[in-house]
Sequence to fold (220 residues):
Amino acid sequence: MRIILLGPPGAGKGTQAKLLSRKLGVPQISTGDILRIAVKARTELGRAAKVFMDRGALVPDELVVQMVKDRMQLQDCANGYILDGFPRTMTQAHSLVQILAPAALPQIAIDLEVAEDELILRLSGRRVCQDCGFMYHIEFAPPSQPGTCDRCQGGLFQRDDDKDDAIRERLKVYRKETKPLTDFYQKKGLLRVITAEGNVEDIHDQLRKLLVKEGIIGQA
Ligand code: AP5
Fold:
């Protein structure tokens, strides 16, 4: 099972990838999450990536491609994966073709479409637990007690790149660097589009129905 989730910042790639991963039993490979762990651990990769991430720019392709290659070597990817946030440039899309044997090309690239006003609302209201990483939204998915994680009581924080200037930059970068990937996958006959607005569970259902229709998973 080799699924790519495309879509702008805030489209819900991470939210939906987590639900699908749990349902389908294959890992979510989120380049954003891997990079944030490296930043927190202050590794060489993390130090190099932080300057780009904080201002909403993309981390250089060579760093990200090597990171994904390494991640895909792990045993839990033997039956597939859900790519969340990768590829994000044409160079990364071409590298993915090279990383994978031709027989293992992605089976489907799903573009999650959301209006820009809604993206800004979602990103500016996102809060994340500093201890367990669980994600909230101050309006759409608030914690029971403001500022505190329901799961582990950790403190919630706002990502540096969820502040106004960085959000604007990320959306600009998305339009220039990542949106063209929809044409790339369209030409390969792999692109499917979902309107990812509304209830999280309804969007998950739409995704599952699409995967059934495409023969990627059985009825479940
Ligand atoms: P990354 O973490 O990948 O950020 P992103 O693509 O900008 O995506 P987000 O995590 O912001 O949004 P999402 O679509 O996953 O939505 P989510 O489910 O979180 O990357 C961060 C940075 O790392 C990049 O800017 C770059 O610097 C670097 N990077 C990462 N990958 C890279 C790559 N391949 N190459 C180069 N650099 C790379 O949801 C967002 C919010 O909306 C949450 O609060 C959630 O609760 C809420 N929400 C979700 N669904 C709904 C819904 N249906 N209704 C209402 N609210 C919802």
In short: The two ends are 15 Å apart (CA to CA). Residues 7, 9-15, 31-32, 35, 52-53, 56-59, 64, 85-86, 88, 92, 122-123, 126, 135, 137, 140-141, 161, 170, 200, 203 surround BIS(adenosine)-5'-pentaphosphate (CB under 6 Å).
